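Re: that backbone. Tokens:
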């Protein structure tokens, strides 16, 4: 059992700047309050195979997450897949489109999948993610524009 949530936002920065910011997952805590800490392996530019490990807080519970980058086409596309064994995992990405006047349209999406008891929890988690999606997009916009 799985489900999609997504958000789209226009950022007042050129696509190359937006891509560079979002490709460095260590920036995630600046727009995702659930991310408490995050690391990247290996050092250097984000590429297929780069791993981001994070500690997140969902519904009052701390969990460890590990995401592997599965696709990079700078400055337009970034894809990831969760490798951790949690009740609910995600696969997703960013699609970036350059707009006139140096702006960028950003689409973020995640497909959440429930495992074991997570199949029961998926519905409420997906509803919460979909409800927060517009605000999540606005937080991304604000964080990128501040950087």
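Recovered sequence:
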């Amino acid at each position: 059992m799985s489900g999609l949530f997504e958000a789209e936002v226009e950022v007042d920065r050129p696509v190359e700047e937006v891509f560079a910011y979002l490709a460095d997952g260590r920036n995630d805590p600046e727009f995702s309050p659930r991310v408490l800490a995050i690391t990247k392996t290996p050092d250097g530019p984000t590429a297929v195979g780069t791993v981001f490990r994070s500690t997140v807080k969902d519904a009052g519970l701390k969990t460890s997450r590990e995401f592997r980058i599965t696709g990079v086409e700078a400055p337009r596309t970034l894809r990831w897949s969760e490798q951790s064994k949690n009740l609910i995992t995600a696969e997703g990405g960013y699609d970036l489109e350059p707009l006139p006047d140096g702006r960028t349209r950003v689409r973020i999406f995640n497909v959440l999948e429930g495992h074991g008891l997570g199949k029961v929890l998926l519905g409420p988690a997906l509803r919460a993610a979909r409800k927060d999606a517009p605000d999540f997009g606005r937080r991304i916009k604000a964080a990128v524009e501040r950087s």
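The CA atoms of residues 8 and 107 lie 4 Å apart. The helical segments are 15-23, 118-146.
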